[in-house]
User: Fold these one by one.
Assistant:
Number 1:
Amino acid sequence: MGNLRSVIAERAPFRFAIDTRRLAPGPHTIMAAATDDVGNTSAPASATILVADAANKTRADTADTLPPRVYINLPTDGATVDRLGVRATVADNAALARVDWLVDGEAAYDAAITGTRAVSDFTWLADGVATGPHTISVVVFDAEGNETTRSISVIKK
């Protein structure tokens, strides 16, 4: 683990700023738990952030040959689900173009995206889907056609 820091906040909204210049490029997990006045502590919740790699920026006159990066934030690999909100953070050194979501290899959702960093969400309505394991994949494309795929497994209850 990196540098840990406790933050004590007594009133909502609860906020925390992170200086990402001190973090290595790539995904980082933030965890939080709440403790009340008598010492009861909640189960920790987590979120994943993506720190871009500034060194991978290319000059405008150089062809983009680097694939985009994708991290599936929600759900966690192996989660048991019924109805599922899925979230991924995508990034590219030059320009993003499209994100495709697949469930068990079949197209489920797609969206055009722009910029060098984005969050993509979709809701998988698992009604009528067989119980048991399923694979959710996200494929991200950049403007030059480079692509990256990430997958997780979930169990439909």
Number 2:
Amino acid sequence: MKTSFKFLAFTAVISILASCSDDDTNNNLISEEEVVEIVQRTVASDTYGMAAQIEDASDILDNEISTKINKICGVLQEGSIIAESNPSMVSSYSYSVSYKHEMVCVDNTLSEYLIDFSASGQYTTPRIESNDETILDVAVSNLESQASQYVYNGSFRRDGSQVVRIVAEKVYSSTISIQNSDLLVDKTSFEIVAGTSTFSLTGSSTRGGSFSYNGTIIYNDNGTASIEINGAIYNVVL
């Protein structure tokens, strides 16, 4: 299984984020820096986020196309893996993953690849710890051998509890839902190189109260992406 581990670090392009809504409850309960941290770690490879799961899904897809294409059209297959970080990494994670996948053929020609990942586990970084469950539900197209990129459409969801240690230690329960639109994934590196995602983050604090944020993630072709919340942009390195 090909797994690529990268550190997703961000730098703020705009130092102050605007409030997410007219209600000041969001900013009083959770800081904008904490919001970006949670979004960042939902996508990050070093926390087995969406980018890492897409890499693993692409690896499975690549193997199926190259070795079993004539045997599996229209057949739902299942499998499981244990995803664990390299001990040398600053961040760490451990997830139990089950998956289902199916090749969709039209007139005996491969048309689309469907895959669902369900994962349960935890990750730890210097700024945040999380116990959570994730679901990746995607359809992959552009499967022709001459194409250099897969096209991913679908969703990713992460539900769990986080301990965030940025200024002071805070504990949150949160759900972040990501909707992907034409993500381009390189067929050699299995990395996201273009496309757009929208996200919705909702949650609550052990101190009481709830919060809600929405935004966009734009992926670039140089290993970076931009997180936008209310017009404020944060550049991230994938």
